[in-house]
Predict the structure.
Amino acid sequence: MSTPPTGDLAPGDDASTRLAALWDAHAVRVQAYALRHTDPDTAQDVLSETFLVAWRRIDDVPSSALPWLLVVARNLVRAARRAQRRRRELTEELVQLEAAAPLPDGAPEALATERDALLRGLAALTEREREAVLLVAWDGLAPADAAEVAGCTTAAFHVRLHRARRRLAASADHVPSAERRGDPRTDTTRTSTTRRSA
């Protein structure tokens, strides 16, 4: 009767050989652990990422590898849960922001696209950063007054506002140009045509 693989290697075996041995010995049990704690798709990702971590840290993997691998898998499951929770929160925040900023009937497509990008950018901010932007841009407060409402110093509020604006600008930069088509600020064809007509 053959002995089940353990993932152990004799001195001189290289990293790729050891990783293959670890996979053969423990992949099924790591996947079973992940499936007990998350959905099948995420479990597959956890399995792959666990052995990616093992590959990157192959010298740190102990001879008794399964507990070490399961700790890595546990941490990846927790990270996946946090990411899923954050995505749900962002979706809920986006719905709330959309309800607070309805578009008028017949609004042009470019305006709708720009508004959608702005709302997504706002939803991605931290709660404090988003509140800083809304107090100034939507409620029309001066920074000193907005700081009083936010319960912080004016200097701290300026820092929040600066970070929020920087992140919003970065978010806008990642909107594909096709989505901004029709926006007079980015539509060079319309601009050049207008200039020629003038």
